[in-house]
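We now fix the convention by which a protein and its fold are recorded. The integers have meaning only within a learned vocabulary of local backbone shapes. A complete example follows; check for yourself that the lines match position by position.
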Amino acid sequence: TVDGTIFTTLMTIFFVAVNTTELIEDTELTLRSVYFARLSSAVAESLILIVVLISQLPVFPQHMHILRYDMMCMHILIPLLTILSFVYNDSPMPRLRFKDLMKGTWFISVYAVVILSLITSGVVTRQMIPYFFLDLEAMGPVMSAVVFLFIYGLGYLFSLGISTLNRKLYWNWFRNLKKR
């Protein structure tokens, strides 16, 4: 999550510059591929936020110290800012088809391939596995498949919800500011 959050932060800084240029020059610079990269980033950060909040439930014996400043920034504030930045600042696409909404899971797919490769190759030992649901050995193949489908299903729903909010709320704050 830390690497993903750092990547998202750098990407967000870049797109703040793009959005500022768009405001100053009153022109649209965002391309379709950039839109899906930002959507994928917002979806990945949404999943980070959900995983962290679920991990705080009393049924889990080890809690993250979420109220620590660094944990709060990395696991709560940055995900929320990433989602809000996308919803309000990225130029919306028309209603997205299923295959386009699946593009919102790009970063989840990359993370899954990397972390599962590291786990199965033994580079990441069982003691180092960051989340219980990545411990394939302990969960078994059926539960691993269920978790995989659940995470991708949740990613798809986040992609749908965040892109819909983006279409409805894009630049509302700017339009209201211009009316004054």
